[in-house]
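Practice problem: predict the structure.
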Amino acid sequence: MRSMLFVPGDRPERFAKAVASGADAVIFDLEDSVVPDQRAQARVSVTEFIASADTEVGLWVRINPVDTRDALADLAAVLDSRPQGIVLPKANCGDDLWRVDHWLEALEAKAGREDDKTQLLPLITETARAVLNAASFGTVPARVRGFTWGAEDLAADIGALANRDGRGDFEQPFELARSYCLLTAAAAGVLAVDTIDPELRDMEAVRRRAGDSRRKGFTAKLAIHPAQIAPIHAAFTPSEEEVRWAREVLQAFEASPGAGAIALAGRMLDKPHLRQAQRVLGVAASRSEQAGEKLS
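Answer:
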């Protein structure tokens, strides 16, 4: 999964277009993009669409924060349509994840779906409190697929006038929250999904910043417009040069099975480099599979 595209839950005319955008997953939003008096109808629209959808694209729903009255109502409404997962915004500590996990267990049991677990993607470090509680997310329910975060809500929470500099890169407090999200995901053994890019015109800037996300260790990125999908996918697909080097590293270690470290092209490499090469080749193989090609 490289991309997850948001679509407002109260705009059903956009649902099919979002699914056809090329995104690996679509997130139907019941939170920030839907005003409170439209949420009941949005739940109906989202549920009806997911229940009838015939697609391999992952269909997710962002509910409202766990400490609001809408959260459980959102879950109860959409779960019967069998979304792939739930996106939980503004998680303030690990306990919020376990609370939603218990709700999902109860709703799944009621629907006779004990063996069909709904996945969970929490937005962590989206509030100042969550940043300070980052360590509490280290142990998570088994249904948690990954972690992501949100710079806009964090800016509002701390009173920042902006969260990016003139180049569109994150200012220091937000880069800290981003790093905590990445490190916490690694500690918990789940995927790290970077937040959205607000740029809607300069797709090269979107690709550059998505490339920065991948270099830092993120495996996917949120999107807010279909035009962002292609540059995000390009950034998260290993280049031919990366694949070539990874193969050379793998072959060098295979040629010296008892060696803990080897020299290759003037560089000293050890086991972490081997693991990174294996990861690059695994991602490249999966991308090639998605494109219907065979990686030679």
